[in-house]
Amino acid sequence: MNLIIADTVSFFYSNPVGSNDKMVEPWLEEIMSSYNLESYDSKDSYAAQLHMPGEIFQDLVWWALKSLPDEILVGLDIDFNQRQNQVVDEMFNSVQQVDGLFQGQGYLINEAHIVNRGDSFSVHHLPEDWTDDIFAPSRGARAGRFTHWLHTHPNAPAIPSGADADAAQETPGVDLILGLRFSPSGPLPWFDDVEGKRRILGKEAIPVKSNSTAATWQRKSNLPTIGIAPSGHMIHEVQLIAFHKTGLGVNVIFTDHNNLPYGWSSLSKKR
Questions:
Q1: Most buried of the four, 82, 94, 128, 202, by CB within 10 Å?
Q2: DSSP assignment string, the chain
């Protein structure tokens, strides 16, 4: 298990949301807009909602690819002085909405830190540098100060494993899983032998048929590319889910620096 050094700039985000208006890649804006439309259409399937700033989500995708072949565990904190946009809250309210379901419900995420990296089991355990010594014995493996937790599934779907479900029992807020399909895959070929509901940003990556006589290894990577990461990886598919420790699903809405959902012009027509 390796520890990311906390003051490494590229693995740390703690600016007020919208303070820098950091540029979000157009392709990422497009798939976040698509995801938001699905979040609206399926809102009554969820018990609560969580607003995720797009600039933070972009960092999470970049960090995940920079940390390969490991999974990463990211602590997410909220700003108690910045509530989610009430108009958007009301728009995405579910018929089965549960108020007070989790800590920090209704407040914006404004801080993200990588706190660990490792395999699917070790990644959930916090190094001592990130634990709260006073409460650590009663909080288990995630005895940290963060409200929400996100971990990654490199070249695997964003579907919780048994270890993921166990770790979620110690989360005061919401657990999120970021699944990425990318190439070159290195030692991590796409793993798809798992069942569960998937939430895809944009379209599912389906191999493009080709009449080319290229080599087998080239044909295997014949997937549409939606974006290129700073690490040089081609991104074919992005998935994200969020859930409460009780097993209830949480609806994620991606927001811009004005705290409005990406794709707002299309969404507002549905009101």
A1: 202
A2: -B---TT-GGGEE-SPTTSS-PPPPHHHHHHHHHHHHHHHHTGGG-SEEEEEEHHHHHHHHHHHHHTTTSEEEEEEEEEEEEEPPHHHHHHT--TT--TT-STTTTEEEEEEEEEEEESTTGGGSPPGGGS-TTTHHHHGGG-SS-SEEEEEEETS-S---HHHHHHHTT-SS-EEEEEEEEES-TT--------S---EESS---PPP------HHHHHT-----EE-TTSPEEEEEEEEEE-TTS-BEEEEEE-TTS-BTTHHHHGGG-
